[in-house]
Amino acid sequence: MLTKSQFERWIKALRSGDYPQTQGCMQDDKGFCCLGVLMHIEGEDIFFGEEDDDYNNYNLVYSWVDFPDITVKCPAHPVNSGEMNQMPLSTKLVDMNDSGHSFEEIADTIVEAYERRGFADD
User: Fold this and answer.
1) Is residue 122, in this structure, part of any structural domain at all?
2) Is the Cβ–Cβ distance between 58 and 26 less than 8 Å?
3) 85 — phi, psi (to 5°)?
């Protein structure tokens, strides 16, 4: 689970404008995804270039960050359109990042989730 200081560094980094944003991977020549920013500011190595590197990167970040579950409204879908469902925050963040939401919007979602959940050092 994130400590409050890790959380604050992550939000500051996402809102700083210092990190160009990329989609579909944690890091590439264009920039970082939101989880890649977290790994970078925490000094974790991000592996890229090989086919299975993103799988290893995501497993690494999930192993040391206990992301809370959040309640989200399902997108338009014939079976469950508009229903509220639980999903891991990490899944929501990856979806937001890869569908073009800005780091600022992603930071707002993270803040909202952690305001309800708290931190490892609270």
Assistant:
1) no
2) yes
3) -135, 155
